[in-house]
Design goal:
70% of the residues lie in helices and 0% in strands. With 285 residues, the chain is mostly helical. It is globular. It comes from Comamonas nitrativorans.
């Protein structure tokens, strides 16, 4: 199975808000984008899927990091994830991918395991933004690298969009994350609205919880708005791809606002009927 087919098969087993290496991407860039996706998705699964103990997850991620650095040096990796690292090695060699960005992704997955194991949350927005800097922003920067964009303003706007998408994903996944001990609503924000962790786990949608979630959604929206000018910086297909990604995130955000705290119980997803309005909004941009 080739790299793109492997990534699409992997995506088929996971809900994704946005397509992987879609038809809007230039054909020459689909293999490296698929290789990056397969690398990140596999690492995320090591951190999150199955019933492995935290110690085993951390050991697996450490071995995965060793293979990443072997791959980047052009060395042979171990057999376990060879189907991931062979295409990634080709992408690193052909496109000079910045390996520290891939390493940042792994550091975020390690942090996820550690936080979940200890049921620790995030003290404030600065701490959560640091996590987003490593868990989401590298993806945007890697894509800009593939498109030959190194402009500082473009990178800053890409970071804003990627961070916003990560925040939206947090609020989208509350019904799944909270029971698993993942707390992305920060302690400082919860304190501002008089909401405790026990309140969130109890699942009763109180006015305080509705206000907390609405304020968190506003934060994600403002962050997204800061990055929107990037769609006009990027020409051709990548610009249209980004427009649709942004509209997908904003569509989920609108659904969350309509729920008024119901995302404590129900996870909203993109449906086929959402795509015509998303396309229209992308055109309007």
């Amino acid at each position: 199975m080739n790299t793109l087919a492997s990534a699409q098969a992997l995506a088929a087993t996971h809900y994704e808000n946005f397509p992987v290496a879609s038809w809007l991407c230039p054909p020459r860039l689909r293999p490296p984008i698929a290789a990056i996706y397969a690398f990140a998705r596999t690492a995320d699964d090591l951190a999150d899927e199955g019933d492995a103990a935290p110690a085993q997850r951390l050991a697996d991620l450490a071995a995965y990091r060793q293979d990443l650095h072997a791959c980047a040096q052009g060395w042979t990796t171990g057999p376990r994830w060879r189907s991931v690292f062979l295409p990634l090695q080709q992408a690193i060699h052909t496109h000079q991918l910045p390996v520290p960005l891939l390493d940042d992704l792994l550091s975020a997955f390690v942090q996820d395991v550690q936080k979940t194991a200890s049921s620790a949350g995030y003290a404030d927005r600065a701490e959560l933004l640091d996590y987003c800097r490593r868990s989401a922003n590298p993806v945007g920067r890697l894509l800009l690298h593939l498109y030959g964009m190194a402009d500082a303003q473009a990178l800053e706007r890409s970071d804003a969009i990627c961070t916003a998408l990560q925040l939206i994903n947090f609020w989208q996944d509350l019904s799944q994350d909270l029971p698993r001990g993942r707390f992305y609503l920060t302690e400082a924000d919860c304190a501002r609205f008089g909401v405790t962790r026990q309140d969130l786990l109890a699942g009763e949608v109180t006015p305080s919880i509705r206000h907390l979630i609405a304020d968190s959604a506003d934060w994600a929206d403002a962050t997204m708005q800061a990055g929107l000018p990037l769609v006009h910086q990027l020409p051709g297909r990548i610009g249209w791809e980004l427009r649709l990604v942004v509209q997908g995130g904003l569509t989920i955000l609108r659904k969350l606002r309509t729920q008024q705290g119901g995302n404590l119980h129900t996870r909203q997803t993109l449906k086929k009927r959402d795509f015509p309005p998303m396309l229209w909004q992308a055109i309007q941009m």
